[in-house]
Design brief:
Helix content is about 25%, strand content about 25%. The chain is α/β, with parallel strands linked by helices.
Length: about 475
Amino acid sequence: MIFNIDEPQRQKQIALTDAASNISWTYSQLCDEVQSRRDFLASRPGLVFHFCNNDLKSVAWYLACLEAGSPVALLSGQLNLGLRADLISVYKPDWIISDQQPENSYASTPHNGVWQCAEGPDALLNPALALLLSTSGSTGSPKLVRLTRENVTANASSIRDALGIEDDHFPVAHLPLHYSYGLSVLNSHLLAGARILLTNLGLMNVGLWDAVRHYKANSFSGVPYTYQMLRRLDLDKVNAPSLLIFTQAGGKLDPPHISHFHEQVTRRGGTFWVMYGQTEATARMTILPASELPRKLGSAGKAIPGGRLSIKEENGEVTSAANPTGELVYEGPNVMMGYAQAREDLSHGDELHGRLETGDRASLDDEGFVTILGRSKRDAKLFGLRVNLDELEGFVKKNGPAAAVSGGDRVVIFCEFGSEENLQSVRSELATRLRIHSSAFQFRRIDQLPTTLGGKIDYEQLRKLL
């Protein structure tokens, strides 16, 4: 089976533990659960919409879809009902797995929470298609990333090898499974034969930390906002001494935070790993080994095993030489086939052929380590000068959680920190640093930055506040 979950020597080991129900499955039980669902789906192969949560049955259905050859779109179980209906009308899935009953054209099945379309499929599916993921979290965008089984397994293998994941690793899987980073935590640890603690609880919920302490999970993953909040909580004060392995992806964490956690985790005998990835490359493309900190502070590391990095300069030339700045290009077996916007697109073949132009500005050093400078499209024009919002954000975030959005002729920076006087000081310092008049920047205090279900800053929500 996929991720070798049926490997004989691991069958008695625990594979999954559901923190909410306090139920655990061994690898043998997981195989049985997957096989029964696989056989059920095989009666009518087709597109599956899986509105999932971080629980046992969601994992079983996900793996069963991959085993049955039924392409599965992993979507948030908390997605707004109207957005669900819109996606269903666009893609017309053959199966829906959801706690919410879909529209009348879907009939119930012997499996509780599984619904089958009464009509036959109206468009063919590419036989290589295995998984569909959204890049937009909870917005309900119809744009999905088309991934193959090879994409998924190759990336899981590369992550396992680069991070040195073994069967005694025990991650707390709190990042949503419909989010590529959260899903990669599951995939890579299943491949290693490890145990995984599933939870839907957020970072600020004491129940999350109670579960970590109770089960003695030893691995934690988070996006930049996660670590900004964890620093406020104070890792030592949450009293989770079993946590020794920390990984960070999902955006660029500013160097002061990386230094803080590297030092704090090292003191407790653990390791802190920085990574970079995109859903379009299944999950991750680069990993900075914990052993390279603080020497390579600010870098996102080297390409994962099987991957290759290069820079596309403004003149269109592509180079792997040191120091040029331009768009980062990644090549590897984990690169998607392409995007889909509707059901008809699911018949398309591989359009990228293992090569992804990431849309991120970056540079490579003479050792092959990459530094991500910001999104190419996250630019604003201020008094005729181009300013990258990610770089600007990085400067402000040394003071606390912040997010920058373009507001026409100015940049609005939302901050979770500071008095009016303090924010004016940061504004003046920023203007001086960039040599742009301070009127180009507007600072707004906000109690909490809105985030997607994957934990990333929700810039669309911030733009609505302008």
